[in-house]
Amino acid sequence: MNRRWLVLALAGALALASCGGGDASEVLEGENVTLKMFDNRFEFTEIRIPVGGSVDYYGAGRNPHNAVASDDSWTTEDVFGSLEQYEGDSAVITYDEPGSWTFFCTFHGNADGAGMAATLIVGEPEA
Amino acid sequence: MRIRIWVVAAVSVALASCAGPPPGEASPAATGDTTNLAPEEWSGTTRAVPGEFPTIQAAVDAAESGDLVLVDRGTYRESVAVTTPGLTIRGVDRNEVIIDGEFERANGVEVLFADGVVVENITSMNHRVNGFFWTGVRGYRGSYLTAINNGDYGIYAYDSGDGLFEHSYASGSPDAAFYIGQCNPCDAVITDSVGEYSGLGYSGSNASTELYLVNNVFRYNGAGIAPNSWDGELLPPVENVTIVGNLVHDNGSGEFPYKTAQWITQGNGILLTGSEHSIAERNLVVNHPMNGIFVHPNIDKNVWMAGDNRVVDNVVKGSGLADITMAGPSQDGNCYAGNDYSDTMPALLELRQPCDGLRFPSSFQMGSLTSLFGRLVERNLGLDSEVFYGDMPHPQPQPQMPGGAEAEVRPAVNVFASAVPDIDSIDVPAMPSDLEVTQQKGFNIMGVTFASVVGGLLGAYAYFLPLALYAAWVVIALWEIIKRDDLSRGAGIGWMFAILVVPFLGVIAYYVVGKSEIPAAYRWTMLAGGMGVYILFLVLGLVIGGIA
Q1: Which of B446, B438, B472 minimizes the C-alpha distance to B369?
Q2: Residue A39 counted as domain residue
Q3: pTM of the model
Q4: What is the rounded average pLDDT of the residues B468-474?
């Protein structure tokens, strides 16, 4: 295999590897993360960030979506100005206190975690 | 530098090949991998609204599986969320039991992961999102429903299986009057229903297998019926959809609310958008500015090509572009037979793509796609005019459910098994006495229409220009070869053969390595200049259209 084909094969393999995974049951973890809101579900069902970290709730579907904490302590409406985020609309929320919340899309889920819902954990989860 | 180019190319190819639906899994309810948890029979308990409970939601919250929530006449300003399996929510009067969202609340009735819920004989209107909505359920039924002017869908089942929408009416929804999405096998039927004044009469993204649309009317929408493959939801491509005996008319000619996809597809009757193994049969399709029946690919993150679809025994009249159109690129196996029509695009489609016998290659008629592309660019440039869904007309009072409040209570269990239509018994709908063929044939060149400036420009520059350039290159090259004294007869004939037989590359090779006597500056201007303009328009279209 000459050098060009080796590079081609390696780069292709790298790119293919980079597009795998991402199953909805996996955890999204990081300091500042982006959570896509598809029709009609969140890209990940569990999100973990440190205290001071942020989540960008990003519209990636054809239908309107939002993210609202079940205890109503925070909502994307607070920063976006509307509960209706369409494709390309972004709402970044920074979390300065530790905590754990179920959150949901008010259009396609409910506060009990049914339908379009997920869990956010900020800081270390309680033992 | 060369290695860097190869790396970029390889990564691009690899990423393109892994583009697809978002990660995740469909609900087991939508793939037939679970059983219905609802009781098969009524519990015998009736929860009366407002007699016993002041709101529908209060009654639903108090109800247990298998109960009947019976709603008396009145306007209910609430959103109803259902999480209890097997409930039946019934209005005593379809036209006078109204759930009104007042353009403030999201859904009229939403059923969240609760199997077997029935909603019947009720009107839901003026909601910002959906009129009636089931998600993640096995077993659902909507009967004698009226959904008016809801901001997303009228009557909507998503990620669900085993369902029936019957004797229902939906209008004024920017996406679709009726929508079934993300299921395979869907095990679902929509029948004896009317969808109008919406972006689409019916839309079904990735809703496949054992899905029947029969004996419905879809009119005055942007487009009539559009099962489609789409990367934004799971379970693509769409396949095995059966569309029989529907009356589809006058879509795309009046005012309707819409979103982007609906703006793009306006003016078509039945679209098989990146669909596979689907059937459009014995439908009456009348008065569409674009195509009566349109089989075409959907260009999303992936290119979903239509294949193995059957378009047979339909009656299609009054289409601006063509009564039956197939655009490429497409897979093999689309076939057309027994239709009553006046023209097809490409011509002689039934002869070239019969359902029995040899099918000739005609998979690359792309001219009729330029209007879709043009509409997409128009929309993204803001050249369209918004229509508020709340301004759509209200219907006349709709037929009541037989039996009304006293009708038998039947939770939605094994719905599909008792609702599968006898397809063979369905005839082409009769032409209504008040429906006339009014749509005139529009001007087009090889499928490119000039209904909009943007579509015309894209058609001219991104479709015709390369063909015109190619023709010019060939003529000039052949003429020069005839005139050249330095070429032997054998060499000249060899080049002619290459130019005529090898599309594009043959003539380009002649200009590059054939020692043409045309000055290099002219040759490069001819080759690169024209193609540069073509590529510029194509790239602009792709970028503004949001495809690239």
Answers
A1: B446
A2: yes
A3: 0.86
A4: 89
**Residue B531 neighbours by CB under 8 Å, 6+ apart:** B466, B469
Dist CA A60 CA B303 (whole Å): 19
- CB count, 10 Å around CB of B383? 13
Domain segments of chain B as ranges: 220-391, 452-544
- State both tokens at B233: 């939801």
ipTM surpassing 0.85, yes or no?
Answer: no
What is the enclosing helix (H) or strand (E) of B161? strand B161-166
Q: Does A102 touch chain B (CB under 8 A)?
A: no
Q: Residue B328 pLDDT more than 90?
A: no
Which three-class secondary structure state does DSSP give residue B120?
Answer: strand
How far apart are alpha carbons B64 and B437 in whole angstroms?
53
| Pairing, β A115-122 against β B335-337 | unpaired
Provide the shortest C-alpha distance from residue B106 to chain A (in Å).
Answer: 6
Residue A6, helix vs strand vs coil: helix
Question: How many domains does chain A divide into?
Answer: 1
Q: What is the pLDDT of residue B156?
A: 97
Taking only the tens place, the pLDDT of each residue in A11-54 is 333 333 333 333 445 789 999 999 999 988 899 999 999 999 99
| Residue at A32 is within a domain | yes
**Does A48 contact chain B (CB < 8 Å)?**
no
The CA distance from B14 to A17, in Å, is: 9
Is there a domain that residue A13 lies in? no
Do the domain assignments include residue A63? yes
The residue to which tokens 């269990």 are assigned: B413
Task: Answer yes or no: do B175 and A62 touch at CB < 8 A.
Answer: yes
**Three-state SS at B134:** strand
Q: Could you report the per-residue pLDDT of B200-251, keeping only the tens digit for each?
A: 999 999 999 999 999 999 999 999 999 999 988 899 999 999 999 999 999 9
Q: What CATH number is attached to the domain comprising A46? A: 2.60.40.420
The Cα B203–Cα B174 span in angstroms is 11
Tokens matching residue B409? 């209570």
Contact assignment for A7 to B13 by CB distance below 8 Å: no
